[in-house]
Fold:
Amino acid sequence: MNYRTQQKITRICWIVGLCALAIPFVFPFLWMLSGALKGQTDVFASSSLVPAKIHWSNFSEVFAYQPFARQYFNSLYIAIVVTIATLFISSMAGYALARLRFGGSAFILLVLVSALMMPEEVTIIPNFFLMKELGLMNSHMPLILLPLFGSQGVMATFLMRQYFLALPKELEEAGRMDGLSRFGVYFKIALPLSKPALSAVGIITFLFSWNLFLEPLVFVNDIELFTLPLALANFTDTYGLPLWHLQLAATALAVIPMLIVYVLAQRQIVESFAMSGVKG
Amino acid sequence: MSAVRKGPSLSLKTREAITGWLFVSPILTGFLIFFVGPLIAVFYYSTTEWNLLSQQSRFVGMANYVDALTRNETFWDVLVNSLVFAAGLVPLNMAMALGLALALSKSRPGAVFFRTVFFAPVITSAVAWAIIWTFLLQHESGAVNQGLSIFGIDGPNWLHEPDWAMVSVIFTRVLKTVGLNMILYIAALQSIPRDYEEAARLEGANGWEIFRRITWPLLAPTTLVIMVITVVGSLKVFDHIYLMTGGGPQNGTMVLAFYIYEQGFKFFNTGYAAALAVVLFALILMLTIVQMLLKASRK
Amino acid sequence: MSDFVIKRLIYSAAISASLGFAANTAIAEELRFTVWTGSEAHLQMLGEIADSFTATHPDVTVRFDTIPFGDYVQKITLQMAGGNPPDLGWLLENSAPAFVEAGALADVAETLKSTDGYDYADFSQPAMGLWETSDATYGIPFSTSPFLIYFNKSLYDAADLETPDQRVKDGTWTWEQLRADAKDLRDASSGIWGFETFDGQGYGSRVWHTLVPIIRAYGGSAWEGDSCKLDSSLAAQAVQLFHDMVYADGSTVPPGEQGDFFSGNAALTMTQISRVSKLSEATFEWGLAPLPFGPAGDASTVGQAAVVAFAQGKHKELAAEFLAHMTNKENVAKMAAFFPPARKSVLEANSFLTSNAAVAPEQMTFVAQGIENGSVLPSHQRFPQIEAEARPNFDALWSKDADVPATLKKLCSSISPLL
Structure:
């Protein structure tokens, strides 16, 4: 066996192995699509991936069943607000903790780092009563405030700080010479330099907000205020049994646009992680 | 220069300190209100017997803790479940992430495609992922068992037998999250200079030796971060449990995060739930400290 | 028209009434009313009742908020604790004592008794048991609904089996017979199950509903006073029967499987009369029968639900008035189409037997008899906690080689301290 055939065999093994591994990642999406197009009773009646009859009407019924467009919009705008606010607040704090010398900064850092890994379940009960006192129950504010200032915001601050620490100082010093204020240096020089970190942190934050489930479950009652995850869990018939075909159609509607965006941007996403040095 | 002239009464140092505090004040204020305050409150709540329905509470001291630690068998089951979940999820997730990253870090044709595939569940809503897998894991009509039956295997009732339910939840959670860790590993692998590997190859090292002596040590910081993220992620798992098993069967998948929610918001035992939250806090604080020590010892 | 209404968004129109006087009328008020049904037919009926309320209260709208059955109590509790309580809602019998005890329900006695033509004494005394004390009324049962067996007549006919309603006449309709029928009608190759539990939720949120009727037919009970009776040999016998149906016979839809009676995938199910609305588009013939007899004879079981006003509601007075409106004679007769009433005048009227267009009068008599003879499902002040303790023990029943008597013993030992 010469080197070439050996290479060829390795390569075939590589592809076959990865294909086999890919099955549990790809199949659920195919199954979801197929179920989304099936009628209510044949989701389980036939195990074939190809629907006996294609029910496009499932997709329109999703919107008739609950205000799904509104819920979609809710998730989207909350995730965008949380992402932008987190990027701003966390990068500012991260910059100060990396670059500015001030009494107490070491302590602040220590406190923040120890909260880095605290899940929201720890504080959800007091936060429930806090939001009640603030009159923010049954609104989107808890879904914006808690990620922003909880462990997710802390994580973002920490990652930004690490990135700023690794940036060369020379450009910023030049900016100071040109008479920029500290804020000016941060905003006009440091931020533009940290695009990879900003996009990596932005992606993580967006996904965090997009996936949020416990908070909406606890803080939101009105169906018009639901976010997508809540809405997806809410396709039940009269007596609480799932309406599988609608649930799957809605799931497909929730998943496919994200998949498309991801496929289009996947190179940039991977690169931003690579360059952001998200590694502590 | 101009900065000095504008503020004659303040020294440069003071100005920098003020700016620093201003920069951190937004997150600090929010953090105090929505994290530190509630954290203190949860310690207080944990010393009360508090019924969410009647909204009446009374001070009971350490009774909730005593109850959890000595009287309530469920608490220990839940704690063990949480650890089993983490112990099952973390190594599986990390080994798989590293394996995939090694296979996909070099830009061969097809690598980008497979990266996309393995990352796809990460950007899929966790609720959607859990819902789909609940269907796939049904006993007789589920696709998983139908697939297994092709090979003559009679699959278990995945989500309705305690041990298998745990396996199922761990497995689907790994599939959901492994992509992010894979990307982090790929990013780290790509930042390792090529020369190291080539130099080693010239000295006659084989693939395994290169991995063991060069790649793995250089990945150590990334491995630590990934481990921390994954351990914490495993301790806060909520949506998969809520949607796939509801903590059952026989509390077989009842983990701490979900138990807090149920006790606090479903069974009205708010004080007891707060005590559980304190336990979770202590557990994670311990992990944080261990991680900091590990990091310090590396330096 | 789509088959589906936008859930929770049925508003009754009251704006037209006040159009011309917009400047003078008070600000319109909205009552929020939580229910666990999403059935279009039910919501339409409720909407009509809300509409007729505008005759006396032109500026009031009622909004019916559907919460899935399994999450119902939890959701309304969260809403109350979060300072956003509904004004009114449905409440199930098993939650009643806990809610009354916690002071979560408003006392509506005065409003009801002062409403013209309400006739409070018309409500059957046993039905009111859970909802009133000597001087207060915390709710009015709108549904005192016996558990029934629905059967797929097409499947029975195809198998040439004697149908349950026939067997009722012969006096051979027993749980053993039901088990045998389910076994005969189970057809794995075409995905037909013999028996489906209550709404398919018989292993989760409706496990009591599944087991209690059988246990009672065998002469057992869940608990009496503060002593747990689930560990009795009678209860064990009953639960064993159901366990055998699921595992030994494989005739009953097991946990983790789907087999829906209403889509024709199960031959028999246990449920209530309100589910008839789900059969409007059924492609098969169906019929109703009472619960089978057991060794202890007839053990009709009734599930009860009441309309309540919440103590923390923002429009307490208005809510009480709407409660009075909803449960007056006319509206109770209207709701009787789905929800068997507790008003004697409605129940005894011949029109009750014909109130449901989909159900033949002789089958409706099963409902009437069930109400008369039935006893309400068990309830308790600490039901949520009992449920929490019981659930993992019930779960332990659902495996092939579960030791039923031992599991029930363990169940009793874990809920006994709470009783």
